[in-house]
Inverse folding.
């Protein structure tokens, strides 16, 4: 029995990339014209920063144990998240044993139910939870994947998300997922352009490489259905997050209406076992895509994944670097993983949370061996060159 306890929790913010990967300098592909629910307003159509996609910034949570060991994690949440940790959640964390992860989660979630449940509160709970797993791994000198039951395969295989699937293919990835540029407000002309871009990429990558469209909640049911049928001849493997996340009814209809064999995937902006239960019981999608930094953390992802297993759904977590890798390598129902191409032109592999983490592993030739994850905790360190601010204390 571990008697090591948690002495202190501290919350920091940091700007410029990191876990808030939308927080990039101008000229990055992730800030090019991408269809969003705000695209109906021409003044917010050309970049996502224009409507504030990067306002939150990165949240860093550190937990320090009585033996001096420090665990940490990062997610999107910034100053609001830091306030929640310092002013509210700290009381459920400090003084507990490092093994009491389940109890801490339950207290954090239930104590915030009246203003939480989803969004930035759950991002924040996720960050604390991941920091606790990192701490437990470091105290026990074991990688998190060992705490989860150990790898079920020797390596991870990745598809790449970014503007250049053609380059991702050359780099050895199994597929490429592109952002959709034009939304319904741009009418027939926009739809034609979306399909023309897919056709162009298909001719660049050949027949067998996976191509997917990420629609980032931007479409309506009719547009999404027409896009899916138009995309069939160019072998679109899946249509992702086509509708707003609250439209479970729309997703269920879309899944019935897409061409046979095309997958409907979603879930990166869904949270907790209850949100994913709705997605699964309403037959909304084929693959669920929880983000471990946004869905409730690893403690909750374990439950979501078990539920998915019983529904014969695959779980392919959204982004999240090492926090996803340690999970995916331990799951039979997570056969591959996502890698976000964070180079500004999507033309080289750089660490996903660049520049915030040191020792962050990246795929080589689209793969990563399980042994790349064989370090205590999540196996990463904070880059001392990134300037952390601690806006609140307790
Ligand atoms: Mg997505």
């Amino acid at each position: 029995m571990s008697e090591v306890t948690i002495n202190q929790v501290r919350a920091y913010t940091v700007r410029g990339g990191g876990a808030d990967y939308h927080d990039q300098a101008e000229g990055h592909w992730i800030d090019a014209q991408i269809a969003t629910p705000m695209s109906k307003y021409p003044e917010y159509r050309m970049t996502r920063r224009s409507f504030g996609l990067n306002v939150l910034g990165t949240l860093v949570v550190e937990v320090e144990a009585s033996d001096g060991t420090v665990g940490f994690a990062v997610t999107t949440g910034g100053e609001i998240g830091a306030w929640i940790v310092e002013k509210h959640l700290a009381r459920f964390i400090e003084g507990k044993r490092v093994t009491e992860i389940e109890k801490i989660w339950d207290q954090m979630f239930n104590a915030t139910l009246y203003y939480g449940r989803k969004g930035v509160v759950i991002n924040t709970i996720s960050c604390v939870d991941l920091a606790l797993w990192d701490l437990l791994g470091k105290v026990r000198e074991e990688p998190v994947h060992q705490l989860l039951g150990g790898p079920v395969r020797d390596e991870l295989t990745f598809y790449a998300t970014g503007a250049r699937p053609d380059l991702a293919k050359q780099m050895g990835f199994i597929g490429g997922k592109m952002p959709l540029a034009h939304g319904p407000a741009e009418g027939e002309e926009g739809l034609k352009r979306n399909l023309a871009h897919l056709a162009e990429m298909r001719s660049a990558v050949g027949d067998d490489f996976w191509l997917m469209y990420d629609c980032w909640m931007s479409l309506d049911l009719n547009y999404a259905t027409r896009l899916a049928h138009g995309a069939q001849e160019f072998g679109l493997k899946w249509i992702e997050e086509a509708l707003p996340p609250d439209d479970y009814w729309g997703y269920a209809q879309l899944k019935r209406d897409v061409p046979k064999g095309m997958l409907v995937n979603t879930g990166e902006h869904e949270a907790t076992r209850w949100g994913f239960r709705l997605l699964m019981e309403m037959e909304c999608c084929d693959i669920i895509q929880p983000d471990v930094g946004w869905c409730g953390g690893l403690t909750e992802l374990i439950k979501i994944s078990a539920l998915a297993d019983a529904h014969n759904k695959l779980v392919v977590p959204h982004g999240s670097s090492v926090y996803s890798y340690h999970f995916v390598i331990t799951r039979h129902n997570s056969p591959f993983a996502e890698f976000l191409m964070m180079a500004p032109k999507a033309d080289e592999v750089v660490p996903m949370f660049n520049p915030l983490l040191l020792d962050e592993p990246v795929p080589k030739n689209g793969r990563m061996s399980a042994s790349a994850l064989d370090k205590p905790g999540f196996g990463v360190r904070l880059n001392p060159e990134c300037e952390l601010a601690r806006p609140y204390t307790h």
